[in-house]
């Protein structure tokens, strides 16, 4: 069988020109890749399209786009005919250092982030740094949060400070950014290989995400104008994690201020977009919460985090 005929391309309509050039005449489906469309309805649309195309068990789905695209196309591939192969072609900085690497797929449910999904690894992820040069500045900066998050978790090569320097420039040097993308992806890949199903170590990759997902839920349910992107919400969540780390005596005072200043230098927001009390319900419905506790990622220092089970996010200092 012609291998080219078994490849089916699912792409974000925002990168249509790039995706169709990459597809080279293969069957291609454009989807709307935003949080409002990150639902089972879109996944079923992809599955119905695969069925209409005659895709068999030998199908290979190419997911071309950002993290929402790879999440949904990967999920569709995971359940279509009980699972076919997929490969990621991430086109955003965020997906190149995070979503396109780890094998998590899924969709939102009633505004709650990634409540439905499976862990299924792509057969490969192809990093194409050159496509980043076409991204809007805000989307590029959004990805900076996930890159810096990764280097806060592990920073053996001193990549954190290098990334802050590159990402804080008014005009980003993409040549200098490329090796940082590879380094961040390598950190995540190593962690995922050690703990593919998030039973222990992999939980550290959720740094900043407990608050980020709550913020995204709040924005979705309140119809907030100009909501924060996922990466921007993660930046705010990282600052909240640093503040909690200081309050619990996990890190030295001043770390939260440093991280806040670094994120701001990279053009990222650092303040909650609403009173924290408004996030309480979503914080405890997050998928990282179990039996009245949250597996919360705290920061000891740049390059070192710990996971602590908390039953109260407002605990007094130790």
For the record, what is the CATH homologous superfamily label of the largest domain?
Dehydroquinate synthase-like - alpha domain
- How would you characterize the largest beta sheet? 4 strands, parallel
Shape: globular
The H-and-E topology, N to C, reads as: EHEHEHEHEEHHHHHHHEEE
Distance between the termini: 65 Å
* Second-tier CATH architecture of the largest domain: Up-down Bundle
- Estimate the mean pLDDT confidence: 92
Residue runs with pLDDT of under 50 for 5 or more positions: none
Number of discrete helical segments: 11
Count every beta strand, where a strand is a DSSP E run of 2 or more residues: 9
CATH topology of the largest domain: Dehydroquinate synthase-like, alpha domain
Q: What is the alpha-carbon Rg in Å?
A: 19 Å
Helical/strand content category: alpha/beta
Strands of the widest sheet, in order across it, are 2-1-3-4
What percent of residues adopt helix (DSSP H or I)? 40-55%
User: How many discrete domains?
Assistant: 2
Produce the secondary structure layout:
Layout (H helix, E strand, L loop, with lengths): L6 E6 L3 H8 L4 E4 L8 H13 L7 E6 L1 H13 L5 E6 L2 H7 L7 E3 L2 E5 L20 H17 L5 H9 L6 H21 L14 H14 L7 H18 L7 H11 L14 H6 L3 E2 L2 E9 L2 E7 L8
Parallel strand pairs: 1-2, 1-3, 3-4
Antiparallel strand pairs: 5-6, 7-8, 8-9
Protein described:
This protein is 43% helix and 15% strand. The chain is of the alpha/beta class and 318 residues long. The protein folds into 2 domains: 3-135, 3-Layer(aba) Sandwich (Rossmann fold), CATH 3.40.50.1970; 141-318, Dehydroquinate synthase-like - alpha domain (Dehydroquinate synthase-like, alpha domain). Strands 2-1-3-4 form a 4-stranded parallel beta sheet, with helices on both faces. It has a 3-stranded antiparallel beta sheet with strand order 7-8-9. The chain has a two-stranded antiparallel ribbon with strand order 5-6. The protein is globular and about 60 Å long. The mean pLDDT is 92.
